[in-house]
C-alpha cells in the first residue's frame, strides 16, 4: 500500500508565480481533502471532494486558490498568483467512507513563496 | 518544525513513563474522534479512533478515553519511547452527513531517554 502520494515535496517560488500541487489518493478511497498547516493557524481544511465532486470549498482562502479532481486517482491544488503568505505545508488526505472519518495523510508539500 | 511555537502545549516525560495527552472538544453532537501523531517533517499519522457510543478503546500501547459529559478526550501511551516524540492532534467529526474533521491545536510530546 503506497499511501497518499504528494508532489512535489518541496517547492520554492517567487511571488506572482503559479504553483501546482499534486495528490494521488489511496486507491479505492472516495473522499479527498486538501489541508494547509502553519504555525499560526494549525491544520486548516481548504476543500474536500467526494467521488471527484467538490463538496465544501469554504476553507479556500480566496480566488487565487483552486482545486480540481479530474478522476478518482488524481487531484491538484493551484495557487495563482502566489504570495508570501501562502507559504505553508499543504497536505492531501483521503478516506474510504463517505463520512469524513479516518483520513490518511500524505507527506505534504512544503511551499515557500519568496 | 511547523508545530513548534509558543501556542503549542508541551508534555515532557522520561522514557518508560506513561503519558497522558488531553483534548477538550467543542461540539456535544460530535460522534467520532481520532488521534493523530505528527512527526517533524511528516504528515499526520492515524493512531486510534473512538465512537461516541464507547468510553474507552485500546490499541497497541495506546488507550483513548472519552468523557462525553465534560467533552474531554485523552490519549494514554504506555511505556513511552523516544520514538513517540511528536505532536499529537485530536480531531472530531461533528455529526452525520457531509461533515468534516475539526482538528485541535496539538500537543507536543517530548520523551527523554
Task: Please characterize this protein's 3D structure.
The complex is a heterodimer of chains A (114) and B (113). In chain A, a hairpin with an 8-residue loop joins strand 9 (88-95) and strand 10 (104-105). In chain A, strands 2, 4, 5, 6, 9, 10 and 11 form a seven-stranded mixed beta sheet that branches. In chain A, strands 1-3-8-7 form a four-stranded antiparallel beta sheet, with no helix packed on it. Chain A is 0% helix and 54% strand. Chain A has 114 residues and is mainly beta. In chain B, the strands form two sheets. In chain B, strands 1, 3, 4, 8, 9 and 10 form a six-stranded mixed beta sheet that branches. In chain B, strands 2-7-6-5 form a four-stranded antiparallel beta sheet, with no helix packed on it. In chain B, a hairpin with a 7-residue loop joins strand 8 (86-93) and strand 9 (101-103). Chain B is globular. Mean pLDDT of chain B is 89; it is low at 1-6. Classes of the chains: A mainly beta (114), B mainly beta (113). At the A-B interface, strand 4, strand 5, strand 9 and strand 10 of A face strand 3 and strand 4 of B.
Could you give the topology of this structure?
The complex is a heterodimer of chains A (114) and B (113).
Chain A: E1 5-7, E2 10-13, E3 19-24, E4 31-38, E5 42-50, E6 53-56, E7 65-71, E8 74-79, E9 88-95, E10 104-105, E11 109-113
Parallel strand pairs in A: 2-11
Antiparallel strand pairs in A: 1-3, 3-8, 4-5, 4-9, 5-6, 7-8, 9-10, 9-11
Chain B: E1 10-14, E2 19-24, E3 32-38, E4 45-51, E5 56-58, E6 62-67, E7 72-77, E8 86-93, E9 101-103, E10 107-112
Parallel strand pairs in B: 1-10
Antiparallel strand pairs in B: 2-7, 3-4, 3-8, 5-6, 6-7, 8-9, 8-10
Can I get a quick summary?
The complex is a heterodimer of chains A (114) and B (113). Chain A has strands at residues 5-7, 10-13, 19-24, 31-38, 42-50, 53-56, 65-71, 74-79, 88-95, 104-105, 109-113. By secondary structure, chain A is mainly β.
